[in-house]
Amino acid sequence: MPLAFDHHTLGQRVLFGTGRAAAHVAAEVRRVGARSVMVIAGTSERGQADQVTAGIDVAVHYDDVVQHVPADTAAKARQVAAEHDVDLVISVGGGSTTGLAKAVALTTGLPILAVPTTYAGSEATAVWGLTENARKTTGTDDRVLPFTVVYDAELTLSLPVDLSVASGLNALAHCVDSLWAPRADPINAAMAIEGIRTLATGLPAVVGDPRDVEAREQVLYGAYLSAVAFASAGAGLHHKICHVLGGAYNLPHAPTHAVVLPHVLAFNAAAVPDVTARVAQALGGTDAAEALNRLYARLGAPTALKDLGLEEESLDEATDLVLAVVPPSNPRPVTRSDLRELLRSAWAGSTPRGQEEQVRREEELTATVLASFRNAPDERLKTVMSSLTAHLHAFIREVRLTEDEWNAGIGFLTDVGHITDAKRQEFILLSDVLGASMQTITVNNEAYGDATEATVFGPFFVEDSPRVELGGDIAGDASGEPCWVDGTVTDADRVPVPGVRIEVWEADADGFYDVQYGDDRVAGRAHLFTDDDGAYRFWCLTPTPYPIPHDGPVGQLLAATGRSPMRASHLHFMVTAPGQRPLVTHIFVRGDELLDSDTVFGVRPSLVKDFTHQPPGTPTPDGRDLGTRPWSRARFDIVLAPAVRPGPQSGAAGPL
Ligand code: BEZ
Ligand code: FE
Q1: Fewer Cβ in 10 A, N or C end of the chain?
Q2: What is the per-residue pLDDT for 243?
Q3: Which ligand 1 atom lies nearest to the CA of residue 570?
Q4: Around Cβ 120, how many Cβ atoms within 10 Å?
């Protein structure tokens, strides 16, 4: 696949090191030469703020941190910054603290040094948010992107386990959702996959031991990657759903993300198998949805929106609200009923079925059906039916056949049956246009030396055709240009075979066989026998192209699939001789435009012959007077394979 994308990397320094926050902060303050530093940290984070700013002079502390960054709080913070002639803002805290620092930067352009103490990830994006009159406004502005982030996992040790899990899963959701978000590209996908990997290892370890600082590092690193991936790729279906639920029903942010993620993943999984395979691998499993379910079970993660305060009555309205903002980039089309079902199962907390479970159920059914043939008394029938069933099931599963499609297929076969009678064999036509007739012939007529190749029988052979003598005319009253055909019939050792019965039949110049006229005429068909030298000769009509009967369901199938019903011009032969493999074949006309598109796939290059044009007046081989009519001639030497293949030692082996 060619690579083409437009990726924007945000310019930001990341200093990562456990127990090194104070040293990193001091070095950064020195590096940028800040003279008047404002530290933003909520009252509960003051201890941590003092710890990380121990090595620098702080001009002012600001601790009025409120969730969702109310506009008046932002205004107050800006005023304090102005009063102290601040030239650097250091934020120490979670999403609300970073958010307040961003609000200050948005209007003042002050640089931010962010020291996160949670897994919110806001420090790695240029997204800001402000709340005024209960309305949240968000936007993106490069000025609010912290120029440096100092990560120190020790600062997250005090984050309670349930909050760590919810916020870690929020990060995981950002990673997964970014893989099908509007600006997904290979770079942000690489970050997202790495984020999934680290979160999936770190979170269970944090739950196992909340003081495990290496596990905290993993989660912190994963949270950073998730924010970068999300900021770059944009919001996918998952994020849109959570945004609507959070905004319209005031559901808690991180737990809502945690609950919704498995449902969106299960919904999209089959539409993006490559992506889900990478997610599965990053989660340490073979099936993404199953691996996520296992992770949730280990983490004791929230699983139901009803537990987060969403009322069942709101599901219809929520469906409509989300439907209006579904990103066009979503890999699977989202219908209203799909979405309603997704939200209902997220509300109820049902476990989204993973691929693995689905595959297991499908395979189990196939195995049950195959087992039902176990006691078939006829071994060959058992083999054929078992294989047919296995392939039919595989087909249904591969194309994910819908019930409507299956019913349409049944309806089609019913129509094929209804049009079939003693004269019209629509099932053979169906087998022919699907190449099944030709494949059966190919399987059963293995190449034998340079024996003449077989091709389709077609539906127009009739028993008891009239006999013509050598050199006679098989055309009868059928219209068309006369054609002389001659040749020899030999066995595989090139020994001429006398007395071979050759059946010949063909359509007239209007493209019809005699049996298609609905009267009793017999024309364009006959049989004859080779002479003592294995030679034969007869007059017929120069073959012309014609359509197979296409006024029935098979014709509709051809039309629906953009295929032509035309057969390349041909003359049918059936050659039988004792001890020789019966041969059903045609010869085709070299130069015919339809040779490459014969609708029943009957053309073999070895069967294409020169039908040389003979202008009017050209003497005929047997002195027949054709007056002013042009004619043609073709030679067809037939080599028959033996009816049994000579064995390696004994000279005779099994039947061919
Ligand atoms: C034919 O050549 O006669 C024929 C073969 C397959 C389908 C229909 C017609
Ligand atoms: Fe034919």
Answers
A1: N
A2: 85
A3: 2
A4: 22
Residue of 416, 424, 429 with the most ligand 1 atoms within 8 Å of its CB, for mutation: 429
Extended strands (E) in 412-567: 482-490, 501-505, 525-529, 535-541, 546-547, 566-567
17-27 per-position pLDDT tens digit: 999 999 999 99
Residues of the chain with pLDDT under 70: 1-2, 134, 353-356, 645-656
Strand 112-116 and strand 88-93: the pairing is parallel
pLDDT of residue 353: 66
Pocket of ligand 1 (CB under 6 A): 429, 432, 456, 458-460, 548, 567, 600
DSSP 423-468: S--HHHHHHHHTTHHHHHHHHHS---TTPPPP----S---SSPPB-
Site of tokens 């912190």: 220
Q: How far is the CA of 572 from the centre of ligand 1 (A)?
A: 9
Q: Which CATH superfamily is domain 432-639 in?
A: Aromatic compound dioxygenase (2.60.130.10)
Whose tokens are 């009063």? That residue is 83
CATH for 8-157, among 3.30.2350.10, 3.30.420.10, 3.40.190.10, 3.40.50.1970? Answer: 3.40.50.1970
Per-domain residue ranges for the chain? 8-157, 159-353, 358-399, 432-639
User: What is the pTM for the complete model shown?
Assistant: 0.58
Instruction: Give distance in angstroms: CA of 506 to centre of ligand 2.
Output: 6
Which residues are in the CB-under-5-Å shell of ion ligand 2? 458
Ligand 1 midpoint to CA 549 (Å)? 9
Give pLDDT tens digits for 465-522.
999 999 999 999 999 999 999 999 999 999 999 999 999 999 999 999 999 988 889 9
The torsion angles phi and psi of 312, rounded to 5 degrees, stand at: -60, -35
**For residue 424, which ligand has an atom nearest its CA?**
1
